[in-house]
Specification:
This protein has five helices and seven strands, in the order αβαββααββαββ. The protein has 135 residues and is α/β, with parallel strands linked by helices. It has a four-stranded mixed beta sheet. A three-stranded mixed beta sheet has the order 5-6-7, with no helix packed on it.
Length: 135
């Protein structure tokens, strides 16, 4: 019988504090925005658009447990259509863990011209969003 015991990597992926030379201040979790707007797949895009406002260009689509299902991008939000989010969302967004090192992620975002990355725990639960400008 095999019993999984969570290790250091899993600890960090949940955004729990790290110590040493590569402590939590060197990780993306320390600059992740947790106030990113979220929505559910069964909501209308028009209702989400009203909530999001001008500060955000995305809304993260989550299930009832906060697990990321997709992203509603700026074009979909600004369309304000009377369709369900599940019909307009993009599936399989790129994600990173809160324990990822800032320097490596900043370089990746530059190289791939990414404005933001979703930050999730190892179980897929949304922590927030990392914006390149916040690094």
């Amino acid at each position: 019988m095999y019993e999984y015991t969570a290790g250091k990597a899993d600890w960090g992926s949940f955004g729990l504090p790290l110590e040493g030379r590569a402590d939590s201040s060197t990780r993306v979790g320390s600059v992740t925005r947790t106030d990113v707007p979220t929505c559910r797949p069964d909501e209308l895009v028009s209702a989400v658009a009203e909530r999001v406002g001008d500060e955000w260009e995305i809304s993260v689509v989550t299930n009832e447990r906060g697990v990321v299902a997709g992203v509603l991008d700026r074009a979909a939000i600004r369309s304000g259509e009377q369709i369900l989010v599940e019909e307009a969302m993009s599936l399989g967004p790129r994600t990173i863990r809160p324990s990822a090192r800032k320097g490596k992620i900043e370089q990746r975002m530059r190289d791939q011209n990414l404005a933001h990355l979703l930050v999730t725990r190892s179980d897929g639960t949304l922590v927030g969003v990392l914006r390149r400008d916040d690094l």
